[in-house]
Structures are given as structure tokens and as C-alpha cells.
Amino acid sequence: MKTPPLLLGCALLFWGWQSDLLWVGAVMGALVEAARIVKQRWEFTDEEFRRIVMFCELAGLAALLYAFSANDGPASFGGLVEDQTLGAQKKAGNATVATALAVIRWLPMVFFLFVVAQAYSTRPEVPVAVGSLVQWRRRQAAWREGKRLPPGRTFNAGWPYFGVCLGAASMHSGGASGYFWGFVVLMAWALWTVRPHRFHALIWVVALGVAATAGFFGQQGILQLQSILGGMSAKWMGQLMDRGRFDPTRTKTAIGEVGRISQSGGIVLRLEIPPGLSPPPLLREASYDNYRITWWSVSPTNREFADGNVETNLTSWVRIPNKRCASSVRIANYLPGRRGVLPLPSGCGRIDHLDVDSVKLNGLGTTWAEGPGLVIYDARFAPGATADAPANSTEDLRVPDEETNSLDSVIGEMSLAGLDDAHKLAAVRSLFATKFTYILWQREPRRMTNYTHLGRFLMATRSGHCEYFATATTLMLRRLGIPARYAVGYVVHEESGADKYVVRYRDAHAWCLVWNAAAQRWEDFDTTPGTRNALEAERKSPFEFFSDAWSRAWFEFSKFRWGQSHIRQYILWALLPVLAFLLWQIVWRARRGRKKSAAESAREWPGRDSEFYRLEKPLAEFIGARRGDETLAIWLARAAAEPALRDTSVDLREILRLHYAYRFDPQGLSAPEREALRQRTTECLRALPAARNLRGGTPSNEQTTGWTSI
Amino acid sequence: MNLIWRILYRSYRIATWMQHWAERRYTTAGKAAVVGLCAAALFGANVDSTVGYQGFMFLFFVLLVAFLCSRVFRARFAIERALPRFGTAGQPLHYRVNVANLTREVQSDLALIEDLADSRPAFAEWRDFQLADGKQLRSLRLSRRRWSNSFKLATLKDAAVPPLAANGTAEAKCEMVPLRRGVLRFEGATLARPDPLGLFRAFVSVRAPQTVLVLPKRYPLPRLALPGTQEYQEGGVALAASVGQSDEFVSLRDYRRGDPQRHIHWRSWAKTGMPIVKEFEDEFFVRHALVLDTFAPHPRSDIFEEAVSVAASFACTIITQESLLDLLFVGTQAFCFTAGRSLARGDQMLEILASAQACADQPFTKLETLVLDHAKSVSGVVCVLLAWDAERRSFVRKLQALGVPVMVLIIVPAGEGAATDALLMRDGPEKFVTLELGKIEEGLARLT
Question: Which chain B residue lies closest to A201 (C-alpha atoms)?
């Protein structure tokens, strides 16, 4: 069944309006509807329709790739390999949804060529088989085997395309009712064409009106319901989703957790240092000053982020003005979701080649950047001043009341009375080095005690991972009157080639920052026993080589994707010639196919190369063209009746008999008969000029062109 | 395990019922609307990203209104079918149905849908079929698409009913394509009326039980020179009275229906006023045996169905020639039907073949015994076999040992190579033919 006039055009216009592609939709709609005015038609074979569909499918695939790339699909799914947290999964899901939405939105453009081809073709419908590769192959195979094929089902592509336009138009957000009413009008238009005439039009209008009214209130109800449910679950979902994301304002330690502390061997940072220099031992991501039951957070006074100082080249960011930084390290760091904290060495005064949208710093020296998914920057550092705010006598000396008893007990073991800060620090370091051990496994407490988790570490187990040591050290120093903070980041220790280092997830570390009152600066103070690296190395998987290779490949791709390249533009520009080539192939191959089929048809249909055809034109010039109501036999009889030909030995009836036998008889002509046809035609062609001379030239009152024979 | 099969069977019944219901209830536009509804539900679920939910709600209420409107259809009809006696599997069956409007309201836009008897099998049969079907699947190999409903008897087309005046009648032209041979049972018919929006149909069912026998599919056969010559038939054979060529006159007897006219003894008729015919002692005529192997692995085997079709093709062809044909097969018991010349007609043979069932509870030797008993009176044997295993090979060898010319046709699954037998092929490769599923027609066309 045909689509009613203007329905497809309006659907495309509606799609263009809803998708912010109004002009595109208008042009496409005009092109489709112009087929009702333009009388010119093209003859497309099934094979050509199949090629057009294939072109549309390839265009769809190209659109899919482009949309996937443009919506961070590779980064999101690549991130899933190394980080399988809920947040990463959600990110990958979001990329999938965005890709799907974009592709569906573009579907009217993808399949436009197919619909236009049908609109301008001589066939009102196209075979179903052209849309299915399997069916098409099956039919082709059957055709090759010479099987009789039942007539395939056909369909009018306009109707599915109408549905595609309506669906594609919905791929945008926004609660306005424009889409709803447009959808209703177009659907009503379509439904009107299939309306049963048994019912009065008024009944139809009432029925549709009821449905439209109910639908309108229904869609509003859905919005309200979603709003209510969204409010109820926002908090819960927020908690769930935030687990995998780094929060610069607070961090949940694994203190108190039972079992093995698990961190993957995935590579998170890549470092490159100038030849001859040592890498910074620690890279700090963030620091915190407020501890409360396994949580470290940033106190309100230091929580605010301020814009960093950028130089005129827009890629150099100054953290500590006027600091001379002799050392530098190049760090490649992923920014999941295009934002995150930058791991930096202690005393980092400046960051070069950091091409991001913005850099912000908080009071505790945490550097927050927003930009591409991968940044590669040079961190310039030197011992001395840091970007952290000076020690605060309140926040940086606060110890939770529930931890004081166990801290005081441990401090009592050290006999620190009368020692200065430097000796206190040395004593603390010595205590953790000699009386505490580093382990990655926590047992279930055998019995209930009144200790906190940290208290249990200090008084009972005396073994734990870095977060225990860093937290205990920080709080112990505070208890001793030395301002201290808790820092998180990475240990740099694994070489990966000359002057190159890699940092893995399992190299994540926590340590203490201690305030040097004499020098008025913060210094790293790491009391975690040195066995840490050895223990972490034991966790290396024997198959880490594979993940490293994958990580390297992904890193190189990410550099291409996020570094200086613009892959989206590359893809687009690369796709354009490919699509153009495909289109050219379709046209060229179709033309070649036609030529081939013409050549083949001479072989496949004996008689096409009959010499009789050579006779037609001269004969028409002689006696006039064959009229529409004149059969070939009558026409030749007319010619034979001409006195000029009557006297010759030419037997036109015999030529015609042989021609028809050659052309239509399934058994064809025998070799002598074939030769006879050739000879007699040649004789006739020779006789015609003489006959024309005898008669006196071309008839003046008759056309020389007319009906051609078959 | 049985519980899982029962759950699967229940799912199968529910799924086929839903498919049947949806196909009948929704118009083409309605089906498109349902597809649109599902698509909108899928892509419009994320109300933050799309406004597809708006389209979903409209389509939902449109379909709801259509459904509610279909609840109001009070009409009464009567139907009368003019069914042909036979149909053929795979061939369209055309017939007319008279529809009478028993109300005072004009009825238009009606469609007539035939209600066939439920063809879904019982649990045991369904499970056996699935098990047998599963054995045919080959792991890690592409296989052709299998029919979603292998038990479907016919594809039906809705027949448009011309507008019916108050208490008036009209004739609907119906068409269906029977898919399987056997008895096709009509339980009644349904008159469908679309709702005002043209999406959902209201039904009024009329009970009108009727049957039509669907004959097996037949293939065209070339003119065959079947093996064998005229054979002597013992005088006791009842057939001898009406067929064959006589050698020696024995006596006169009363005319029996089917006796050839040339055997009438005109003078005796003139004397007695009753038709009298001459009876002869020795009868010679060509008599072929068509042996159908019914020992299929499962009752709905495609190979068995094709074997029946091949047998039907032979039955039609041989009977049209001047000979007798014995159809031999084993069903619930051993059967032998003779047709040809003035005995049973070809269509009667096809009726028998239409009802032939696969035999699962009898040994192959039963068929062997049946055929060997008949072998001495037949000129030649055409065997349509379902496999070429030791039992069947031995059976054919025994026939050959009796000096009976044999033509063997073996039906094999698609893609399976041709069976070979040096001994049989030595006598003539054209008498030992392998027919591949899907290429049966081509294989038969090569027969000589």
C-alpha cells in the first residue's frame, strides 16, 4: 500500500524539527515528495536495490563507529578492562546509550537513499529479500542452481521509513509536548488511510481523540512518576555509583576491612624522567586533614577549589610562584570522565604541557583538572615549598576522642619526654619499623574488644597495610603536637625501559605529611615498612604480560585519541571518501552489470544477434517504418509486394521464418539454417540499394523510424 | 528431566497460542503499532534521554481503545462451505464459503478466517519429535532454518467477505495452502471485524465442522520404462477376471462390475437376458509392486514425507500406464492395495498414501515378508526406502535372488552423499537412485 501524499515529507520535516536538523529534514522531505511531481523514473533491478541497501547498511555502520567514538565509547569500554567498578560500568553504559541514541537519530539519513531510490523507481514496492542478506544469498544460490523461485514478497519501504522517522525524532531529551502532538498528528494521518469504512468518520475521530487525550495525560504521569522514583533512589544510587570515583574531598580507607586488600595490576600511570635523574618516590594525588571512623576528609576551610594560575601559552600551570624546580617528570595520566586529580611529586611548583580546560587547587594541594581523557604533562619539582596551605593549629592537630587511649598507650612505649620534633619523628619511624609489620591480609577479630579498628591495629595486631600506618602516624604525630596530614597517591618503583616507569593500581599508597615548623613547609613522612614493595610484587600475576601489552596498546590508542589528534574528525574525513567510493562502486558496478548482462544476453538468448536486425533499418528506409498495428510479417509482406523487390530473388518470408526460429524456438537453428539466415539476409541487404534505385529513393511521406522488431 | 520437558512443552503451547492469537487479532496496521509500542518501550524507557515514552503512551492508548472497541460486536452468522473433496500438500486450495447474516444490520468490512482443529501434538509426541529433531542438528555447523511450528497444517489467508445486507448472504472466496497430507479438519470459521481505528479485530465464531483430504505432494516423473514383463497370474486371483490377456476359455459366468466389455458373451446374454461374460484360466499382465518404507526414525520425519510423495508420484504415473500396481507398506499392520486398469483408481491410491503413517512398533522384516510373498506375481518392484542399511540391503538382495527386477529409490537428508551399491549399480545405475531432500524433483527428473 502506498503512503499518502506528503506523509513522508511531513514525517521527515518533523524529524528534522525534533532533531535540530530542520533544513536537512526539509530538503530530504522535499526530495521524497518531489517524486510525485517528477515523472522521470529509474529502473532498478533487485540487484541494484540490494546494493543500495548494502550502501545504507555500511553508512549505518560508519555512523555507529563515529557515534561510538564521539561518545567516549572506546575509552569507556577500555576502562572496563582495568577498572570494573560500578562507576566504570555505568560510564560504559552511558556511552552505549549515547551511541545508540545518536545512531537512531541518524537513521532517516542512513536509509534515505533507499527510500529515495524506491520513490523514483518504476516499481512501487521492493522485494523483502533485498533487506536480508541471508534471504538474498539463498535466492541467489537457488537462482544459480536453476531452481524455480516463488515470487518473493515485496513491501513499500515508505511505511517502515515513516516509523523510523517517528522513532528517530524521539531521540532527544526535553519534556515539551511538541513531539507528542506531532506524533499524534502523523499517526492519525497514517491511521486514517487504513480506517475501516464501516464506521462513521466521527467515531474514528472520537476514538482517536480519546486515545490522544489519555496518551497526553499518561506521558505526563510517566514524567511525574519518574521524578518521584528518581528522588527516592537518587541518594541510594549516588552512594552506589560514587564507589568507583576518586573524591578529592574525602576518602574511605580500608581500615577495619577483613580479608585481602585487593588491587589490580593494571597500569594507571606512565612516567618518563630526564636521563640521569631519579624518579620521585611518591606521587601524591590528594591529602586530607580530618579523620572520622575510617574516613579521611578535607575540612571545610580547605575544601574550596580555586582556579590555578595559567600562563599565556595556556598549557603551563603555576602551582608555587617563583619556585625554581630543577627536576621534572613526564606523567601520562588518564582522566576518567575527562576530569580527575593529577598525581604530582612532592614540591611540584609548575606543570607544563598540560592541555586541559581547567585546573583547580584546594588548600591541601590537591590538583583537579578537567580536559581530555588522557593528559601527558611535565611536572617540575624540587625539594622545599609545597602548594599546601600552612599548618592549621586546629584541623591539623585534631585527634578523634575514641582513638586517644590507644594512641597514648603506644606513645607511652616510646619515652618521648623532652625530645624535640625531629627526635620524635625518628622515634615514631623506629617504632613502626621495628614493632609493626606490613600485611595485606586482615583476620576476623577472635573476640569482641572495645578497640576501634585503628586501636586494634595499634594495641593488638600491629600489622596492616599502608592506610593503617599512615593514619596511625598522622594521628600519633598530632597527639604529640606535630601538625600532620594524611596523603594518598602512588609509589614509583617499577622501571619500564630506560628512564621510564609504570605505576600500577596496586602501587596505590598512603602516607603522612608532617609540618616542618622550622622550614615552614610540609614534608612526606612515610612510616610504612620497606617490605611493602616486596609484598606487593608477590601479587604480580603470571599473566601480567598480557594485560601490560593490552594496556600499552590502549595507551597508544588513547594518545592518538586524546593527545594531539582529533580522531573524530579523522574518522569523518576518512569515511567520506570510503562512502563516496562505495557509491561510485554501486553506480559503476551497476553500469558494468548492465553492460555485462547485455553481452551475456546475446549468448543467453539465442537470436539477439540475428542478422535480421541489420535488415530492419534499410528496409524501413525503403518502404517506411513499421506501424504500431503492423506485425513483422505484414510489414515484410508489404515490402515483398514492392515491385522493386518482387523481381529479386529475396524471400523475406523465409528470412522472417528463420529469424523467428532462431529467436524463439527453444531448439534454435541448425548450423545450415543459421548459415541460410546469414546468407539470405546478406543477399537482401545487397539487393536493397538496387531496388531503391529502381524505385527512386526513400519514400518522402513516410517515417523511417517506427516500431522495432523483437 | 521430564519436568524440564513439561515446562518446555507448556512454553511451546503458550507461545504458539500467543502467536496464533496475535496473528488473527491484529490487522497489519495493528501489528505495526505493536512493533512501534515495543520499540518505544525499549528506546523510550530512559525518559531523561528520549521522549519516546510520549509515543509509547499514545500507542498504548490507541491499542487499548482499539481493544475496547472490539468488545462491542454483536452479530450472528451462518456459513456453508463448498469444499473440494481433495487438496494437495503445498498446492493452493481454492473454495467458496457462503456467509449468511442473521441480523438486521448491514455488515461490512468483514473477513472470514477458517478455524482449523488444533494441530499441536500431545506432550509425548512433541517430546519425541524434539528429540528426533535435535539429533539431526550438527554441532558447529550451519543448518537451515527450521520451521518455528512444524505441526502447522495449513497457511490460511483471510478471505474478504462482501458487504452483507440485513439477513442477506454473500460468497467469500477462500484460499489456503495445506502444508501436510492427511485429513484437514475444519472446526468452524470466524468472522472478523476491525475496530474503528483499524488495528484490532472483533470476532464472531461459527461452528461448521468439515474435512478435506489432503493428498501427498507429487512430483512430475519422466516416462519410465519400469523393469519386468507380463507375469502369469494364478487363476484363483480375482483380478484375472477383469485384467490381462487370456489364453484358455474356462466357462461362462454372470457379469460382475468391472468386467471388460470384450469378455461379454453376447449370445448368452441374448438367451438369458442377463449379461454373461467368458472366464479364462490363465491371465498374463504387467503388475508392479510399489514398496513404501514406513520405518521412519520419528513420525514427522521429512524423509518419510518425501518418501510418501515419491511413492504418490509413482502411483499416479504407473496407474496411468496399462498395468496394475500393488502398493505395499506396513502401518499398524501389513497393507497391500492393488490399483490400475479397471480396479481401484489412482486417486484411491493417493487417498491411502495420504493417510499412511510412519511405523515405529513393527520390525522391518514384516515389510520384507509382505513383499517377498507378493514377489512371485509381480513383474517388477519399485522400492522407496528411507535409508540404505544392512536390513534394507538384505531385503533388496532377496528380491534380486528371486529374479525380480528392482528399482531402488533412497531418500537421504540434504547434503548427505549418494548411497552406493556395486551389485545393484552393476545391473544399471539408473535402477539405484539416491534422492536428496530438497532436490527430489531434480533427482526424479533424471530417472529413465
Answer: B196
